[in-house]
Amino acid sequence: MDSATLSTTRASTPPHRLELRGITKRFPGCLANDSVDLVLKPGEIHALLGENGAGKSTLVKIIYGVLHADAGTLLWQGQETMIPDPAGARRLGIGMVFQHFSLFDTLTVAENISLGLDNPGPMDALSQRIAEVSERYGLSLDPRRHVHHLSVGERQRVEIVRCLLQDPRLLIMDEPTSVLTPQEATRLFETLRVLAAEGCTILYISHKLEEIRALCDTATVLRGGRVVGSCDPRKETARSLAEMMIGTELSTPERLPHGVAGAPKLQVRHLSTTSDNPFATNLKDVSFEVRAGEILGIAGVAGNGQAELMAALSGEELLPEPAAVTIEGRPVGHLGPRERRELGLAFVPEERLGRGAVPELSLSENALLSGYAREPLVRSGLVHFGRARSYAERIIGAFNVVTHGHRAEARSLSGGNLQKFIIGREILQRPRLLVVGQPTWGVDAGAAAAIHRALIALAQDGAAVLVISQDLDELFVLSNRIAVLFHGRLSDSRPTHQTSVEEIGLLMGGLFNHPPDEDEE
Amino acid sequence: MTLLRLEPRGEASRAMVYLTPLIAVALTLVSGFLLFWAMGFDPVKALHAFFIAPVSSVRGVGELAVKATPLVLCAIGLAIGFRANVWNIGAEGQLTLGAIVGGGIALAFYGEGGWWLLPLMIVGGMVGGALWAAIPAFLRIRFNASEILTSLMLNYVAVHLLNYLMHGPYRDPEGFAFPESRLFEADAVMPLLVAGTRVHLGSLFALLAVAGGWFLMARTFIGFQIKVIGLTPTAAGYAGFNQKKIIWLTLLLSGALAGLAGLGEVAGPIGQLNPTISPGYGYTAIIVAFLGRLHPVGILLAGFLMALSFIGGEAAQIALGLPKAITGVFQGMLLFFLLATDVLIRYRLRFGAKTAPKPIAGRAAA
What we know:
The structure holds 2 protein chains of 2 kinds. Chain A is α/β, with parallel strands linked by helices. Helix content of chain A is 33%, strand content 21%. Chain A is built from 17 helices and 23 strands. Chain B is mainly α. In chain B, 68% of the residues lie in helices and 3% in strands. Chain B has helices at residues 14-38, 43-52, 58-83, 91-108, 117-143, 147-167, 201-219, 221-231, 233-239, 243-270, 281-291, 296-320, 325-341, 343-346, and strands at 4-8, 347-351. Chain B has a two-stranded antiparallel sheet. The longest helix of chain B has 28 residues, at 243-270.
């Protein structure tokens, strides 16, 4: 780091690690960053806060050289710098851990790391260095293991170690805990604190406010592409941070009263799946029931069988054993989505654009997509477009969907608004049973609160609601009972008021307290 | 640095969806002009002979409708399949089978026909085309075999089957061993619609197919399912639409319409079976479907345009002594320019180097 020492000796006060002045980036039809100023000091853990679409990703991509600013200057260690590409950023000492990992499953940890380095050197020496670095920062990692054996948390450690080997002066972390259990997140924070204490600056992007309060020294809040404020998150509450992000007051949903559950609406008994896809997680002997008037939450880190459970419940994947899933006592395992909808099931998939909605079609056509089964939108084979339109308008009105009308294409809506539309479309069909995957993933705080209120109101009206989510905060707000999915197995459910985030977190890491199973492979 | 750049549009341009076919036609004309000029012909005269002279009489316009009929019938069916991501390339074979089955009925009842013969032939032609299309449908659903390959390969099988029949069972017993069938009797021929032309009942069916295709896609729930499956198969799975049913339906429908087109040719302008019943209508219909933006009304217009290229090509051969390949050259240029200009739907052309970012004062409206 010659340049760093050079500029330190020249200036009387140590320069900022990175300073952005008036960074502006425009995309067709939107101003993603509007003269953003940002100062990152050596050794600080700096949070970048903002809703989806606030411009966080764009800003970070400009710092990492993936995108180029239309205007503005970037000063690295006090010197004006052009970052042409990610390789240039790495040469300066900027490392980034992305939300989605780029690892090869069939290679070992060391091989993966060597692929990401500009001059990896011999493999033995590299393995030695990996072991040293992971030891030093408490990131236990065996360089010889193959990546497909690793848990998500371990895979993230591979990415972090890859960055650390290049001796970064600035480490950018994009939503790092979205795939971690609370315990894994705590360990990650310890690592980050050690790094910061050694003088490395950490730019931490997240929308989990409690986490930012626990970890970060400074927070810069973006809204609509502009910096709307900065603060010391330790002196704020999660609520005040959220209000800064959305710019209005936040209303929190009422919690459900406990112990009001009625007759079982959905029963799943000994559900096991076998998939041809080697990357699928097979469900193993999953049993649970959801009763009228209650919300059951299923927690778990992504990839533990959530997608398979959703498909088995929706009917997109038919089951050999019809009685494995029953709706109000009727076996439905052999029935497709259409028949299950007619029996009162509504369904909100995790993937909203491309499964829950057709991007190119208008909102009225998307209202028809699932609405045809329970609403009078189709008569003797003909689509009643007038009714589809008014159904779409009812959804838009009842759920405050911000759009320029029922003609708008689904892809023109923001994530939160589209999710409100899809949830509204399902709820207005007055289902007796609603299954929701990741209801507020990537949704801004205002829309998330509205979605939570709608789900709770639906349960209060006597429907059974099943929420499958990775967001524990959400599950603790919504659910009467929580169960955990791990490696395709489901834990027993426990009443929300009798459990804690810590306990659920341990279950998410696989520590079920009933005895381990004999048929484990 | 660059003089011409493509800049992504925020959303697809509706105007360009309709304008690009016109731009493609214009570019084809310009290229044709240059081509004729380079070949040493008077380009104005050549283009006139190609595009204007053939349609400057009632009879010429009638010929245009006769040529457009099989193109439109095939393209309507293909377009409905294309909307559902079912890529039937086998309209040529299905057309041939329609002619074989429907024409075979005419030959089987030769000399004993009645009013019922033509309706029976029409049904037979449609069933023949649909059954030929059922083969790729079955292979796709049972073995996940690409219908692009299977339907394309079946075209060659169909042509060889026709050749065999023309040299054997279907050959006119009094035809001096020429590979042609008997001329169909009056009960087995499509009635003419306009005196003084060869416009026949098949053209009416083509118009009905345009209306029916529009109704299916725009008004029915089946049409909606076709659209969703084509755009986003996972959303169709989520909604519970039966994709196998749609594959069957679209292939059988396009096969039946192609079969009707084939029957219309042998029972219409040709009046008998022979080994060259189609100059490639089934292939040209693919161009017609895309040139018409997979929309029935667009297909009707595109059908006339492609028909003009057939007729104009023939006229140019006669008037100017141009080679037969001229028709294919024009059709190819048209498809090429259409695909090339399609980029304008999602991108706009910008001249000059990349503009420097404007200083931003306050909140930008865009």
